């Protein structure tokens, strides 16, 4: 184990604007801060940008090859010995293929395993439907004990990865692919697990967004402001545990809620908001996200727009909600 | 005074007989369950817990303890019996099999002291045990990890992912024991999906293999005493066993993979097994 903490130099420049690479950079700092850190790869060394970590901590790295079920099982076994495994994986494979291992070995057994899941949503748009993860939030959110985090940009991804040190249980950290995500969070603000962050004020409508859709929600709010509509924007970076108070306050203080996420409209952030409001405070809602279809092949940004995931689409849903209110 | 081999074998045979009696007792308490695979595993479990493994029943979280993962988790009645006999848990627990809010259900749960992992969904234990063995190496700990697999369980492909990884990392601190009773839930394994040649499969995956009669206690002891079988490979111990071993009506039939147990069945089983 390394006795001297390495200098964490300019991780932002190395992670471009991709959350998957910010995670890899954060692992370098985690490796220094927590000597029990062990990184588990499923032939994903470049996907998560962990070659720097491997070079610095070769004895705390386990490569398991293209075998996601085994990666989760091994990570669980590592965790029982007191180590803190950080799994590096593709979101579509580590959730759908390994779901039983995640449920039993990690969530049911409540082991401290962090799953860094890159290539979520349609972030690998050109790879096609086999490589999209549009149901991962529904799967992970349905598991007791699981913490589910969806960072909006590289700063948040880096801070969220560090925040996992204090989480006494399994974590699913949803990361993007090769698309650059514009910065949208306050780089100086601390990451507070389970607490939504208000990025725009507003009392007419509230957009609750996560991941790449947060930046679009902010742009939508700025568009709507020109039209005299005050659209509050909440960055719901933690899907579980869920910030019920922020949602209930938004429902009480605005005329309706629009959710926005890069995920199927079934079971994700929109589902979480709807489940809460249906019981606690029935509220007019609209949802932005992937309709009930497999996405076509295409570059991620236009592909998102094609399926209604854009600033303009969010603004339009806000206008529609206002018109009906 | 050092225990002679003969005395050791006799003592372990006694523990195994008690395990079998306790299995039937637990199954009766629960109304039934997985007799066949619990009874086939009893002799190996006795040798592990009462001879080979370094454990402290009064200190189940002792960091240097050897680990045991019952991947074929449906044999949990046998594991519960062992943990009670060894003193990890109170003997009265055996009468609370399947009981409301009991930590002793059909499959192992880490809520029970001495249980290392929640298992029972098949094809999970070998990966978990591989993680434990890797964890020992990374953490510079000397414990040995044992995992018991069913032969039908080896249909699950995830086993072979883990087998490949354990051999790649030359985990000589890992032993997989196959309880090769030749019968799964629906019939004979050879008729469902054959697993032969089983030893060759493990060898091909890079493991050092030994085969024993899993009911001949001196063979079980000799094999466990010889671990690791190779200094640079994980060890695979194929224990040829009989499903339902020890009770004539339950032996070598898929009908007793899982079945109901009433007072009459319990009495017949205990009569065949003899005094504890």
Cα-based radius of gyration of chain B, to the nearest Å:
17 Å
Q: Specify the helix fraction band of chain B.
A: 25-40%
**CATH top level label of chain B:** Alpha Beta
Instruction: Walk across the major sheet of chain B and give the strand order.
Output: 2-3-4-6-5
Topology order of chain A in helix (H) and strand (E) letters: HHEHEHEHHEHEHEEEHEEHEHEHH
Report the major sheet of chain A.
7 strands, mixed
Indicate the CATH class of the largest domain in chain A. Alpha Beta
Order of helices and strands of chain B: HEHHEHHEHEHHEHEEH
Strand order of the largest sheet of chain A: 2-1-3-4-6-5-10
Query: Uncertain regions of chain A: pLDDT < 50 for 5+ in a row?
Result: 1-7
List the uncertain runs of chain B.
none
Which fold name fills CATH's third level, the topology of the largest domain in chain A?
Rossmann fold
Write up this protein:
The complex is a heterodimer of chains A (325) and B (276). Chain A is of the alpha/beta class and 325 residues long. Chain A folds into two domains: 11-174, 3-Layer(aba) Sandwich (Rossmann fold), CATH 3.40.50.970; 197-324, 3-Layer(aba) Sandwich (Rossmann fold). In chain A, 39% of the residues lie in helices and 18% in strands. Chain A is built from 13 helices and twelve strands. Chain A has helices at residues 11-14, 19-33, 51-56, 68-80, 91-97, 99-108, 136-141, 154-163, 213-226, 244-253, 269-280, 300-306, 311-324, and strands spanning 37-41, 61-63, 84-90, 114-118, 147-149, 171-174, 197-200, 205-209, 231-235, 238-240, 257-264, 285-290. In chain A, the strands form two sheets. In chain A, strands 2-1-3-4-6-5-10 form a seven-stranded mixed beta sheet, with helices on both faces. In chain A, helix 2 (19-33) packs parallel to helix 8 (154-163), helix 9 (213-226) crosses helix 13 (311-324) and helix 10 crosses helix 11 (269-280). The longest helix of chain A has 15 residues, at 19-33. Chain B contains ten helices and seven strands. In chain B, helix 3 packs across helix 9 (217-225). Chain B is globular and about 50 Å long. The chains are: A alpha/beta (325), B alpha/beta (276). The interface between A and B is medium-sized, with 28 and 30 residues.
